[in-house]
Input
Amino acid sequence: SGCPACQQTLAIVRSRESSLPDGPTVEFVEWPSMIADQILASADARLREQNLGRDYCMSSKIVAILPTGLVLPDIQADVMQLIYEMESMSMLKPPTPGMVVRIDTHHRPLQHLRQAGNPGTWWRMPGVLSHVANALCDVSFCILDDFLPVEVAESLHAGIHDSRPRGPVPAEGRDGWTRGGTARAAEAIKGEGDFEARNEKLARALMSHTRGDILKYSDDDSTMPGTTRLSATIDDLVLSLRSCPQVCQRLENTDFANSAMFSVYPGGAARYIKHTDNSLMTDGRRLTTILYLNKGWEPSCGGQLRLFEPTMQSTRIKR
Output
């Protein structure tokens, strides 16, 4: 109660909460209290992890714990991280009926074609890539189930499973895997100050709740079995799409794929918040390919990809 920054933060949160369409979204619990201690005990491991292994001191601090289990420390220093979550929970809009129809129009024929072919090769059949190009041109994404031959997918899945670290991965990484970075990590690297100060800022950015995956880059089978055929198959897809008039101009200078980035979201509310892969259009990327290797995945497992209508400010989900 004696912390001016905390009082100002609470006022901002209450003000934004009162203007959200679905009513109250935040429950305030004052610390120190028995209830607060019980709540914080459930988040102790995550708070220590984000505090680089050190005990987290609650004095003059505000911590938010979301229904998903996500823990947001130091709200008093950056209230917008909580405002973002409040708005996301309250203001997300489902896909419009028109968008649902447009997506289904593109993907239903592809589902039929997949059933008529073999895993890993069906999308190479005549006419399939024209459907893919139409979908990319109209709704900006396309789903190709059974994209890889089964043996390649199995090799990739086994390689990731066998090489991924078990347990928490620190900011400096472990066993060839590192934490997923964000714009804040890049800012920390380029920021002012001595080496130790910049290094700590970078470590805290890498442990941020905005991105919770661990990742490893690979160019060939020596670092991840199956990478060579994966990269070759993606290159075949892109080069074939370049001959499609619907997208040929957009992909005109897309000659090769970047190194494959293998990413694991280890649970515990790990996620990657809404973002664009090439927001400033300065790094040459034109097409993002995402391959899921989750065997037996069901919606109840969580971890769904959410696509939004254009602009970072949009709250309308596309799919």
The longest helix spans residues 97-116. The longest strand covers residues 214-218.
